[in-house]
Amino acid sequence: MKMISLLLLILSSCLCATFVVNVTQSSYEAEENHSITLEWTFTTRTQGSYRDLFIYCEANTDHGVLVLYQVHEGVEIPKSQDDQFSGRVQIDKDVLREGRIRLHVSRLRTEDSGLYLCDVKTEDGFNSGRCRLSVTEIKD
Ligand SMILES: *[C@@H]1O[C@H](CO)[C@@H](O)[C@H](O)[C@H]1NC(C)=O
Ligand SMILES: *[C@@H]1O[C@H](CO)[C@@H](O)[C@H](O)[C@H]1NC(C)=O
């Protein structure tokens, strides 16, 4: 019994190690009212596609932890998005299948500044990637 649990532990840690979530850029800078595209990439299968895709992206800001984007079992959950981002976030659905989470955030506010984190889970594993966004105020 012990041997089996040990084997499972080794197997699952191997799976975790092969499933990655990367950021294409670890930090972004933008001016308020401008827009930006934040991008994450995750491991995809060479054959077939995922049945179960879970994505949870959040922003850790001075105003708290805000939900930016969420996918549950392959289905988007727009209702979970925080009001602060309402109508300002667009996802590039075409590239999502290729393992790219491209979130376009428009009309940036200084309070959007913070640490942006995306958790991705599929049958193949779980991982997360983070990047920092800093939005600067424009002074006249
Ligand atoms: C993640 O980054 C590593 C190191 O740069 C690279 O080898 C790997 O292919 C990347 N994977 C994905 C899914 O972006
Ligand atoms: C940014 O947009 C807000 C709301 O539309 C506006 O009040 C503000 O003047 C704009 N700031 C700049 C620097 O353009």
Q: Notable features of this structure?
A:
6-stranded mixed β-sheet; 4-stranded antiparallel β-sheet; 140 residues; alpha+beta; 2 helices; Immunoglobulin-like; binds 2-acetamido-2-deoxy-beta-D-glucopyranose
Description of the molecule:
It is found in: Cell membrane. It is a single-pass type I membrane protein. This is Immunoglobulin V-set domain-containing protein. With 140 residues, this protein is of the alpha+beta class. The protein has a single domain, classed as Immunoglobulin-like (Sandwich). The chain has two helices and ten strands; from the N terminus they run αβββββββαβββ. It has a six-stranded mixed beta sheet with strand order 2-10-9-4-5-6. A four-stranded antiparallel beta sheet has the order 1-3-8-7. A hairpin with a 2-residue loop joins β5 and β6 (75-76). It is elongated and about 70 Å long. The N and C termini lie far apart (70 Å). The structure holds 2-acetamido-2-deoxy-beta-D-glucopyranose (2 copies). The site of one 2-acetamido-2-deoxy-beta-D-glucopyranose has 3 residues, from loops.
Quick take:
This protein is of the alpha+beta class. It has helices at about 1-20, 95, and strands at about 20-25, 25-30, 35-40, 55-60, 65-70, 75, 90, 100-105, 115-120, 125-135.
How many β-strands, per DSSP? 10
Question: How many structural domains?
Answer: 1
- The top-level CATH class is Mainly Beta
Mean of residue pLDDT values: 89
Question: First CA to last CA: what distance?
Answer: 70 Å
CATH superfamily: Immunoglobulins
User: In one word, what is the shape?
Assistant: elongated
Domain Immunoglobulin V-set: 25-135
Subcellular location: Cell membrane
Signal peptide: 1-16
Keywords: Cell membrane, Disulfide bond, Glycoprotein, Immunoglobulin domain, Membrane, Receptor, Signal, Transmembrane, Transmembrane helix
